[in-house]
Amino acid sequence: MEHGVIFNLQRFSVHDGPGIRTTVFLKGCPLRCLWCHNPESLAFEPELAVAEGRCIGCSECVTGCPRPAGPLGDRVGCEACGRCVAVCPTGARQILGRTWSVEGLMAAVLRDRDFHEMSGGGVTFSGGEPLAQPAFLVAALTACRAEGVHTTLDTSGFAPREALLEAAALADLVLFDLKVLDDAVHREVTGVSNQPILANLRALAAVHPAIWLRVPVIAGINDDPAGIEAIAVLAAGLPAVRRVSLLPYHATGSPKAKRLGRPPAREFATPSHEHMEALARLVTVHGLQTTIGG
């Protein structure tokens, strides 16, 4: 039985594919996007998060922590054992990420089956980068399909092509996140080249019938009309791309990073609704279904 590390199981999601969905967020990501709004997804292993505003200074966590240095201050040597979490009376401490079996995941997923079926929804595998845990992802997708559950894969496309195509073959829909077409800019803002991503997108579009492109719109990075139109031209040339979703930046990454004891994420201006509408019109004129958000 395959096992994987999941940091969130979000029920009643309406932004990760059609209908009401159960979104499974897998830990681990090879990208380091400057605007990352899920910093808890980056590391592969479970992590300790601390909401300092909930701490009442009771020191129960000091008693529970097995480290000589204790649980306060820096987190060097913390193995996210969860002992401080177990004794914290206010929920100020939390372990983000735990190991799931496919069987356990399916038991949780199928509790939402009625909502999936009445809304045309299903299960979405997201992250992090779900393809960074390929064996678990494929096993979970296979189990969903065996139960007749609609499946969606949300990926950055930065993965070995064989892993992408194997998983995508088990997904009814692929949400493909595309940041920016200029490779130098992509390297600067994500830490990786976009050349394997674009090659994977074209390879996927040649064999998969249903792809939605999702573009996070980040001020000063990719919110210029020329860059968005270039993405629209690329999408229009791929018949498998059914929709382009423009996702306005939102600043949720910094408070999460603080809870993890990391430097805050870089913050950007949130694009105005008028600017988002103008960018959407640039995409729509290429014959593509276009949404803002979703």
Short overview:
This protein is of the alpha/beta class and 294 residues long.
Structural description of this entry:
The chain has 294 residues and is of the alpha/beta class. It has two domains: 3-45 and 98-292, Alpha-Beta Barrel (TIM Barrel), CATH 3.20.20; 47-95, 2-Layer Sandwich (Alpha-Beta Plaits). The chain is 33% helix and 21% strand. The protein is built from eleven helices and eleven strands. It has a nine-stranded mixed sheet with strand order 5-1-2-6-7-8-9-10-11. A two-stranded antiparallel ribbon has the order 3-4. Strand 1 (3-13) and strand 2 form a beta hairpin. The radius of gyration is 20 Å and the shape is globular. The mean pLDDT is 94.
Features:
2 domains, globular, 33% helix, single chain, two-stranded antiparallel ribbon, 9-stranded mixed sheet, alpha/beta, TIM Barrel, 21% strand, Alpha-Beta Plaits, 294 residues
Please tell me what the overall shape is. Answer: globular
Give the name of the CATH superfamily of the largest domain.
Answer: Aldolase class I
Class by alpha and beta content? alpha/beta
CATH topology of the largest domain: TIM Barrel
- Number of separate strands: 11
SSE layout and pairings?
Layout: E1 3-13, E2 21-26, E3 47-50, H1 60-64, H2 83-87, E4 93-96, E5 98-101, H3 102-109, H4 113-119, E6 122-126, H5 134-146, E7 151-155, H6 161-168, E8 173-177, H7 183-190, H8 195-205, E9 211-217, H9 225-236, E10 241-248, H10 253-259, H11 273-284, E11 289-292
Parallel strand pairs: 2-6, 6-7, 7-8, 8-9, 9-10, 10-11
Antiparallel strand pairs: 1-2, 1-5, 3-4
